[in-house]
Amino acid sequence: VSTQSTGVSMDECMEQELPPYCCCILRHPSGDGRLLFEARGDDAKVAAGKLTCFGGKREPEEDPYLCIERELHEELGWHPVTMSRACDLFVDGKLIAWFFAADAPGPEVELVFEQGRSGVWAAAGDPRVSPWHVAVLEAVFAHSTTRADYVTPVDGAVNEPDHQ
């Protein structure tokens, strides 16, 4: 995988606070605005019944770029040609995830989903997208910013700590 420059060297990257999770925004190769999401099962421990970007927990000392490459391979059986860091997600002021962006595979590529996972093409504004991911997608697509801040509702109803 080739990572596109985001203006931050790997040395600078490693000096930053590293996220516990890494995810990837996968754009439809036609450029029509659709994204490839993971359709979370109704029995999922977190984000049940929601659409989320593919990704997961970073291993201790694992480089975030290597984490998302590993996660995409495990969950889709696929590696992106290029990807770039797109947005950092903060929840209640705490860094939760780095989101990367890449062109999803074309229709000629057969994806091999990890057992219990499936993918669905949908628009960023689809009402099934989880609130944390909505915050990131709005930051990236509507505001062209590289930081998304999500504030947990007062009732605390949203609980999305990982993608396991």
Tell me the series of helices and strands, N- to C-terminal. Answer: EHEEEEHEEEHE
Rg, nearest Å: 15 Å
Question: What is the average per-residue confidence, as pLDDT, rounded to a whole number?
Answer: 87
In terms of DSSP E residues, the strand content is 25-35%
Distance between the termini: 24 Å
Put simply, the count of helices is 3
The helicity comes to 10-25%
Using the alpha-carbon principal axes, give the shape: globular
Q: Structural class given helices, strands, pairing?
A: alpha/beta
Largest sheet: 9 strands, mixed
Give me the count of strands.
9
Unreliable residue runs: 1-10
Write a compact overview of the structure shown.
The protein has 164 residues and is of the alpha/beta class. It contains three helices and nine strands, in the order E-H-E-E-E-E-H-E-E-E-H-E. Strands 1, 2, 3, 4, 5, 6, 7, 8 and 9 form a nine-stranded mixed β-sheet that branches.
Q: Secondary-structure map with pairings?
A:
Layout: E1 2-3, H1 10-15, E2 21-27, E3 34-39, E4 51-52, E5 54-57, H2 64-76, E6 82-91, E7 94-103, E8 119-123, H3 131-142, E9 147-150
Parallel strand pairs: 1-6, 2-7, 6-9
Antiparallel strand pairs: 2-3, 2-5, 3-4, 3-8, 6-7
Describe the structure.
The chain is of the alpha/beta class. 19% of the residues lie in helices and 30% in strands. The protein is built from 3 helices and 9 strands; from the N terminus they run βαββββαβββαβ. Strands 1, 2, 3, 4, 5, 6, 7, 8 and 9 form a 9-stranded mixed sheet that branches. A hairpin with a 6-residue loop joins strand 2 (21-27) and strand 3. The chain is globular, with a radius of gyration of 15 Å.
